[in-house]
Fold:
Amino acid sequence: MHSFDFNKFPLRILLAAVAVAMTATACRSTPDKAPPAAAESVAVPAPVPAPLPVPPPSEAATPVMRQTAALAGNHLRRAQWTDLPGWQDDDPAAAWNAFLTSCSTLKTQTAWQTVCNEAMTAPSPDRKGARQFFEANFTPYQLLQPDGRTEGLATGYYEPLLRGSRKPTTRYRYPVYGVPADLVTLDLPAFGIEAREPRLRGRLDGKRVLPYYERAQIEAGMAAVQGREIAWVEDPVELFFLQIQGSGRIELEGGGVLRVGFADHNGHPYRSIGRLLIDRGELAAERASMQGIKAWARQNPDKLREVLDHNPRYIFFRELPEGLGGPLGAQGVPLTARRSIAADPRYVPLGAPVFLATTWPLSKKPLQQLMLAQDTGSAIRGAVRADFFWGYGDEAGREAGRMKQALRMWLLLPRGYPVNGP
Structure:
């Protein structure tokens, strides 16, 4: 997410937008369904045995079939199934339930209606049957960089577990905030304004619209966050990484587990504290993983606050309902461990199947399998870019924190999906 120049737009437009945003905020009691999750960087649970439960959408369902937006084709190159390395070795049936979860929202789009209805009414296939289904109903396209290169970057994320309390104590004193009362969100396209980031976050200061507070200012109590605490946790570093992952679980003192997910952010860009520590000579580049940064923090508590504040971006959460099979991604459906990724929705439609060819973290062992693009993230930019969801817990966290691998990607689109040029 990049900073936004408020001076580029007339005050009357911004104030009108703020008025609409504040009216919408006043009419709802809970945050909107999560927009992009902040997946930045991420044993390994088995695939779920049945489709994950999907919470009802935030807007009323409509019987009118929505049109599918055509994709620009300059980042796509049509491929053959034989071009996908490891396609014959993967078990696409292991991604079947994740695909059905995607179809719970994709089925309202014209290009996806037929293929999703067929999948949702068919019995669960075996390995061979799933492969035949995708080959019969989809066309593979290799994703390309702007200069035509086929290689990009794969990182990983996961769902962490923190320890906390519903009430502040001497042990649990770092708050997990919901959306502040003074945060307004402006939908720029609704006012005819085209921007790379269509949603603008800010706050009102009299008749002025200002950028929202940065991390250090929020931590100093300048934002209207009092009363918006969801829980308190014991470790500021774990809270910082919870914000980077975008979702997680909090084991509550006295029993019970609270699941939280991304609700909104303060509109400021993400800055890597790992890069800061490398540039300062505090960490060697090969140790600037999540685990390395946590170790540095334990050894340097006097420097910690200033380093954390280097990242002005701040994530606000919401409490998620019980019974979800995984954290909610940007598509609004639960993620599946090792079968969901975050991708850039400018190039990869949310919910679409994607075949990845990469390697296991810190390894040359191939990791080539069918995934579902069910999430997004502020650091996930570009056509050949993916954040691999490893699942829940410490083992998933170890894999996620070490993953920074070369990547190739193939987007699978239903036959007849509209692609414009070249």
In short: The chain has two domains: 1-30+180-227, 35-176+233-271+311-422. DSSP finds ten helices and 19 strands in the chain. The longest helix spans residues 11-26.
